[in-house]
Write the structure tokens for this entry.
Amino acid sequence: MVPLSYYLVLSGILFGCGVLGFLIKRNIITIFMSIELMLNGVNLSFVAFAAHWHALSGQVFVFFVMVVAAAEAAVGLAIIIAVYRTRETLNVDQVNLLKL
Amino acid sequence: MFHLILFLFFGAICVAGAVNLLVQSHPINSALSLVAVMASLAAEYLLLGAEFVAAVQVIVYAGAIMVLFVITIMLLNAGAEERTKGSRIATLLGVPGVTVGAVLVAWTLLGRSATTHSVSIGALWGAPKDIARLLFRDFLLPFEVTSVLILIAIMGAVVLASRPEAVTRGARKDEG
């Protein structure tokens, strides 16, 4: 038996690591991976609450989060490729102009 | 007890992978540690009894999405990131801020753990049949809407990642 709060704490730690990576990383791909880490942390709390309340709809929401993450990864990585083509850099500090 | 040991083992791998993602400077190392995080999260889902979610986690997240990331890193030949002034400020302010936030959340949750139930191993009955019944009956409209979302995302990715010259050349060919 594991208390539900342990799962929630683990999910909170993962989310916190994601936020931290979003703040301190300068590589645009790593920032994107931090967002995926945040989504994973939220997924864990969804499943933990689903187990707690004996409600399967929590698991279904995990699938929707995964779909959104997949769509986001596809579009986001395409944007990263487009940015790299025009600026030749992946550092977000050097991508600060809307127009070239 | 066995459940707790397994939970702590995979939770430690999760946290170690997440911290490794932060401290590595090369994106490919970060990507591989993110794969470790996702795989051990799948094990956590299995411990909760959510078998189908665990399988989908491995297939979609650790499989498809991370392959996309690794391919992009290889394609763009991304090197180690350089430290800048902005990243130092973010480290100075962000690390204590997030640590305080995480400690507050953990303290609140653990303080209330007496009022919440414990989760036994395999607590969910999440058989694929039950999930499919829920997904295709109660959540049918959101399910269909996500298919439209995926379609739009595919088209957006194709348009954004295609070379601008290729698009104009195609347009010219259409005119001619």
